[in-house]
């Protein structure tokens, strides 16, 4: 299960006022052959999130073939669920369109933020997107009372499944609110209207953990499931789990096969892994130090 790191492949460029720092939570869309478009989340001068992209050939991933000239998705209107940011999470092709499931940020009062899940659709092969509504497709509810974020979505025949971050609670520690969130799942008949059941897929396994985020699920031909995710005590690390049905998961973090480096851009933390298959290998895009401020790395292993 060991991954071979290919190094840092992308550092966030400064592009006008809307891309000042970060290239966080990467996800990839195949363009055919070895070419992929990689979407990421940048931040502006007010720390608001915008979604951008760059394109690479996996035979030479360190050289960007194209970089977006404007955001493909921007924060929403005053008072909306994504007023203060739109963050990448998942892209998939649906007939002639590309669906982008994303996290919307809104600043809170007693807590620093409230997140919800939105959907944007592209009619030009992922070069631009429009939001399907001003409201989220999954937000706070009876089963998810605090916040939801980081959707991973698979379509299995006529059935859709989502794994996502859900906050279990907020706790005041030393006078400051601290979030606790883990991974839950939801189901849908159309990819738009979702039903969360409150089922916990990946839960805390020690008193030190308080943040489990960014699930990435791959279904194997054997109908089993693999999930990579980020988990945090003192620092983010990448974890791994397996399931026979996508509902009940066994944490096998010792088999994740990738760790923080001894020095450099991913030595303090490693997180937000996105795994995809390509020509007999798994490829993992991931972030390192400071939640994506240091850029995007790539790792490879054989299937």
List the helices and strands and how they pair.
Elements: E1 4-10, E2 21-30, E3 35-43, E4 49-57, E5 66-67, E6 85-94, E7 97-107, E8 113-122, E9 130-131, E10 148-156, E11 159-173, E12 176-188, E13 194-202, E14 211-219, E15 225-232, E16 236-243, E17 249-251, E18 271-278, E19 281-287, E20 296-302
Antiparallel strand pairs: 1-20, 2-3, 3-4, 4-5, 6-7, 7-8, 8-9, 10-11, 11-12, 12-13, 14-15, 15-16, 16-17, 18-19, 19-20
Please report the number of helical segments.
0
In the sheet with the most strands, the strands line up as 1-20-19-18
Radius of gyration: 18 Å
Outline? globular
Distance between the termini: 9 Å
The total of beta strands comes to 20
**Averaged pLDDT:** 96
- Low-confidence runs (pLDDT<50, min 5 residues)? none
Strand content: over 45%
The largest sheet, given as strand count, sense and whether it forms a barrel, is: 4 strands, antiparallel
Helical coverage, percent range: under 10%
Helix- and strand-based class? mainly beta
**What string gives the helices and strands in order?**
EEEEEEEEEEEEEEEEEEEE
Task: Explain what you see.
- It is a single chain.
- This protein has strands at residues 4-10, 21-30, 35-43, 49-57, 66-67, 85-94, 97-107, 113-122, 130-131, 148-156, 159-173, 176-188, 194-202, 211-219, 225-232, 236-243, 249-251, 271-278, 281-287, 296-302.
- With 303 residues, it is an all-beta fold.
- Strands 1-20-19-18 form a four-stranded antiparallel sheet, with no helix packed on it. A four-stranded antiparallel sheet has the order 2-3-4-5, with no helix packed on it. Strands 6-7-8-9 form a four-stranded antiparallel sheet, with no helix packed on it.
- The protein is globular and about 45 Å long.
- The N and C termini lie close together (9 Å).
